[in-house]
């Protein structure tokens, strides 16, 4: 008979600490964890959902998916392999995943991976002018696919043109919507533990109640486009547009972002084009040929090594998000 070892509380704590470094929409960190003797359960926290711009919870689940990815990688690095059951209880839709942990050898690249998890962040400053080779973009898409998500690089010029047009239209529509603007403002400069500090956004005119917009160039048509010709563009998509697909896409996003970080690339999500129903529908038909649902658009580019490190966003302490059962 084999016995499985109990996971030390400090290890559960450390896994969750690393998982909380995951990206989330507006840095809402919409997750909760419950640790057992050999398990970690991930719950969605609907109190942190963006009611106006994310009424379906798509971004909420994508965000939880990135944390789920980070938790699996963190566990591996710390010498624990995880078997994951996603949406294990149909009666509890907020229970997103259960990780069953058992001892396993850490990968040879553990230190490098740990450093990349710590270093990963949203660097919205301009990328360098070097284009991202198509093969590199395809590699990122394959990584997302490996994690059960679907992603494809938009390399065709007409696809990129349409995507860019829709991104700008989404910005304009959201900018014209006072509720969407109020929601953005609510998650900026909250101080301590969540939200986005203004200093993490690109410099530009103050737009909302003395704060910068999360896309400072988004306020009107005259502004510079958000996308440069040298930017790589990838879209996460799925044939389903439901919580299971969103969670998978989040795991793929986490994996893609970690790989980009390791390889010197910056990745920035462009979620507004999916948040606005009109542009989401247009993206589905005009870019994806109605074959699949777009879930998140991201741009990638080479980070300049000459600049100082970007401003980091805060996190809630582990004691707030982890309950030990
Ligand atoms: C689902 C999702 C959507 C996001 N959408 C945007 C976006 O539209 N624009 C943007 O600049 N950042 C976006 N972000 C990045 C978050 O703002 C960022 O992850 C969060 O503020 C935490 O900061 P960090 O990534 O630097 O740790 C998104 C992140 C996720 C996970």
Give an overview in words.
Residues 178-213 are annotated as: Disordered. Residues 178-193 have a biased composition (Basic and acidic residues). The structure is a single chain. The chain is an alpha+beta fold and 325 residues long. It folds into two domains: 9-119, NADH Oxidase, CATH 3.40.109; 134-302, NADH Oxidase (3-Layer(aba) Sandwich), CATH 3.40.109. The protein is 37% helix and 18% strand. The protein has helices spanning 9-19, 58-77, 110-119, 134-146, 157-175, 178-186, 243-262, 272-275, 277-286, 318-321, and strands at 31-35, 39-44, 80-86, 95-103, 150-153, 232-238, 265-270, 293-302, 322-324. The protein has a five-stranded mixed beta sheet. A hairpin with an 8-residue loop joins strand 3 (80-86) and strand 4 (95-103). Helix 5 (157-175) runs antiparallel to helix 9. Mean pLDDT is 92; it is low at 205-225.
Overall number of strands: 9
Cα separation of the termini: 26 Å
Mean pLDDT comes to: 92
Give the radius of gyration: 19 Å
Helix proportion: 25-40%
Annotation field: number of helices: 10
Largest sheet: 5 strands, mixed
Question: In short, what is this structure?
Answer:
The protein is an alpha+beta fold. It is 37% helix and 18% strand.
Write the layout of secondary structure elements.
Layout: H1 9-19, E1 31-35, E2 39-44, H2 58-77, E3 80-86, E4 95-103, H3 110-119, H4 134-146, E5 150-153, H5 157-175, H6 178-186, E6 232-238, H7 243-262, E7 265-270, H8 272-275, H9 277-286, E8 293-302, H10 318-321, E9 322-324
Helix pairs in contact: 1-2, 2-3, 2-7, 3-7, 4-7, 5-9
Bound molecules: flavin mononucleotide.
């Amino acid at each position: 008979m084999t016995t499985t070892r109990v996971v030390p509380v400090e290890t559960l704590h450390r896994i969750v600490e690393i998982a909380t470094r995951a990206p989330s929409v507006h840095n809402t960190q919409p997750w909760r964890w419950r640790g057992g003797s050999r398990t970690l359960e991930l719950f969605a926290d609907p109190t942190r959902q963006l009611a106006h711009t994310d009424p379906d919870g798509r971004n909420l689940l994508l965000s939880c998916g990135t944390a789920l990815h980070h938790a699996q990688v963190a566990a591996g690095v710390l010498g624990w392999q995880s078997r994951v059951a996603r949406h294990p209880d149909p009666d509890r839709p907020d229970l997103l995943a259960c990780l069953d942990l058992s001892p396993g050898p850490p990968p040879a690249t553990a230190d490098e991976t740990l450093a990349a998890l710590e270093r990963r962040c949203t660097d919205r400053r301009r990328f360098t002018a070097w284009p991202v080779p198509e093969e590199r973009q395809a590699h990122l898409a394959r990584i997302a696919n490996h994690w059960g998500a679907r992603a494809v690089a938009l390399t065709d010029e007409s696809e990129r043109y349409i995507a860019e047009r829709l991104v700008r239209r989404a910005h304009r529509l959201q900018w014209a919507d006072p509720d969407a603007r109020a929601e953005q403002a609510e998650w900026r400069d909250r101080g301590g533990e969540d939200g986005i500090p203004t200093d993490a956004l690109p410099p530009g005119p103050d737009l909302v109640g003395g704060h910068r917009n999360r896309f400072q160039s988004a306020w009107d048509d005259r502004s510079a486009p958000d996308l440069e010709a040298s930017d790589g563009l990838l879209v996460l998509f799925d044939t389903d547009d439901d919580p299971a697909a969103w969670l998978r896409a989040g795991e793929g996003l986490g994996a893609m972002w970690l790989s980009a970080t390791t390889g010197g690339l910056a990745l920035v999500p462009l979620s507004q084009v999916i948040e606005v129903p009109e542009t989401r529908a247009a993206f589905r038909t005009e870019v994806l040929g109605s074959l699949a649902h777009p879930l998140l658009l991201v741009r990638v580019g080479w980070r300049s090594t000459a600049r100082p490190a970007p401003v980091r966003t805060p996190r809630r302490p582990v004691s707030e998000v982890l309950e030990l059962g």
